[in-house]
Amino acid sequence: MEIRAITDAAELDALVATQPLQPFLQAWAWGEFQRALGRTIWRLGAYDGLRLVGAATLIQHDLQLNVRYVYCPRGPITQTPEAMSPLVAAAVPAVTVFPAAIAAAAMSVGHLVGLFSPKKIAASRQYAIASVRRGRASP
Asked: Could you list the pLDDT tens digit for every one of the 139 residues in the chain?
């Protein structure tokens, strides 16, 4: 499993179409809408060879006092459970790699929202990965 940027709109939208609820908040057009609002977006893909099997569209929201959070609405989405852990592992560090200093960062995966200091992000990453491996978090 390799995690890399998704650059093909049709490829991402085809993956979204395979999902039971077809979450438009992970679709290419939603990311472009967010970009038009001035937000920074990242599209991470989990690839099994050349095949896209998972995706996470991350949207950065800038607040006052140099506070930012990254949101992954209704995602990540995957075709295989094996793709979830690498996507979560790749998405969480993105929260801490902003060009400017961050007072706090928040990341939401699906319905889980929390406010984290950079120190707590590492602990939450390990918890998220362990939960997926134990089957306690659904893709």
From this structure: 888 899 999 999 999 999 887 788 999 999 999 999 999 999 999 999 999 999 989 888 888 877 777 888 888 888 888 888 787 777 766 554 443 333 233 333 443 333 344 444 555 555 555 555 554 444 4
Instruction: Tell me the whole-structure pTM to 2 decimals.
Output: 0.65
Ranges of each domain in the chain: 2-134
Rounded Cα–Cα distance for residues 20 and 122 (Å): 31
DSSP E strand stretches across the chain: 2-5, 40-48, 51-62, 68-72, 77-78, 105-109, 112-116
Retrieve residue 2's tokens: 């390799």
Cis peptide before 76 (omega within 30 of 0): yes
Q: What class is the 2-134 domain?
A: alpha beta
